[in-house]
Amino acid sequence: MKLITAIIRESKLDEVRESLIENDITRITIVRVSGHGQQIDQDIYRGKKVVPNLIPKVKIEIAVNEEFVDITVNAIIKAAKTNSKGEVGDGKIFIANLEEVIRIRTEERGGKAI
After folding, report:
1. Do 25 and 62 form a contact (C-beta atoms < 8 A)?
2. What DSSP letter does each residue of 58-95 carry, written as one string?
3. What values do phi and psi take at 49, rounded to 5?
4. Does residue 41 carry a pLDDT above 60?
5. 24-38 pLDDT, tens digit each
6. pLDDT given for residue 87 in this prediction
7. What gap in Å lies between CA 30 and CA 61, rounded to an integer?
8. Chain centroid offset of residue 51 CA
9. For residues 53 and 87, what is the distance between their CA atoms, to the nearest angstrom?
10. Which of 19, 44, 59, 98 has the fewest CB atoms inside 10 Å of its own CB, making it the most exposed?
11. What angle do CA 61, 66, 71 make, to 5 degrees?
C-alpha cells in the first residue's frame, strides 16, 4: 500500500481529478495549501533572504494498492503538466509506504480498507 501525495497548481485540479476518474481512481483527499518552490525569487531584506509571497496550491492525497501506483502517478502527471514539456511550478509527487489502513465503519484493514 502506498500514499501518493501530489502538490499541483490550483488551476489544474479539475483536469487532474478528471484524469484520475478516467483511470478508476475515485477516492481522493484534497487540501488547499500554499508554499513556494523554484518559481519564486528571493529578496534580501536587512541582510536576510525572505520569500515575499506564498503561492496557493492544491495537495491531493490518494491511498492506493501497489497495482495502482503507476496508473495514479501517470494520470496526475498527464493532467498536471502545463504543456508537453512542463513548466517550473507544475508541482511534485511524493510516494510513501503505508504501514496500515483501517476503515473505521467496517474495521477492515489493509488493502481492503482502501
Report:
1. yes
2. EEEEEEE-GGGHHHHHHHHHHHH-SSSS--TTSEEEEE
3. -75, 130
4. no
5. 999 999 999 988 776
6. 82
7. 7
8. 23
9. 19
10. 44
11. 65
Q: What percent of the chain has pLDDT over 90?
A: 68
d(CA 74, CA 19): 9
Ordered by start, the domain boundaries in the chain are 2-113
Name the pLDDT band for 52 (thresholds 50, 70, 90): low
List the grid coordinates of 34. Answer: 500554499
Helix (H, G, I), strand (E, B) or coil at 21: helix
Torsion-angle region of residue 11: left (phi > 0), alpha (psi -120 to 50) or beta? Answer: alpha
The amino acid that residue 88 corresponds to is: V
CATH class assigned to 2-113:
alpha beta
Q: Which three cell numbers stand for residue 78?
A: 498527464
User: Between these two residues, 43 and 31, which has the higher pLDDT value?
Assistant: 31
Rounded Cα distance, 33 and 72, in Å: 21
Name the one residue in this structure whose C-alpha cell is 511524493. Answer: 94
Residue for grid cell 503538466: 81
